[in-house]
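Deliverable D2.4 — example input (structure tokens):
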């Protein structure tokens, strides 16, 4: 059957066109899926940084512990494999009210292996977000 289609020029052109369109649709689908994963990771890493900075600012007695604990609670709900892919950094000079506390979160977002190899992307790309809050007074 394939030999008959290949001998018939119209049949072989249709098969090649069909395969080309299927390949392009597959690449387009993978591209959109990867873009959605990247957007999802960026959105939730930014929100996790904000929530962690808020927790650190409202607990000046130990801002680093509260920031990391809050991030762990938040990330466990939304980020894939966050224990091995995320890093939290808390920066503050002092715990006096009015001083800034900054939380920086880096997350190595998941990528499709086919997509990474096809475009020769670095498999260790990170989504990074930071949030800064002002230390609050404790009552």
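Example output (designed residues):
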């Amino acid at each position: 059957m394939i030999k008959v289609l290949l001998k018939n020029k119209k049949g072989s052109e249709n098969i090649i066109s069909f395969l080309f369109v299927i390949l392009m649709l597959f690449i387009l689908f993978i591209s959109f899926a990867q873009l959605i994963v990247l957007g999802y990771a960026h959105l939730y890493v930014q929100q996790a940084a904000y929530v962690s900075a808020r927790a650190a600012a409202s607990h000046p007695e130990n801002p680093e512990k509260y920031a990391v604990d809050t991030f762990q609670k938040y990330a466990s709900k939304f980020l894939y494999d966050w224990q091995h892919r995320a890093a939290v950094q808390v920066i503050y000079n002092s715990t006096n009210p009015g001083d800034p506390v900054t939380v920086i979160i880096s997350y190595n977002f998941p990528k499709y292996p086919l997509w990474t190899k096809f475009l020769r992307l670095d498999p260790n790309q990170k989504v990074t977000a930071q949030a800064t809050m002002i230390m609050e007074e404790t009552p």
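The helical segments are 2-7, 9-58, 63-78, 82-85, 113-119.
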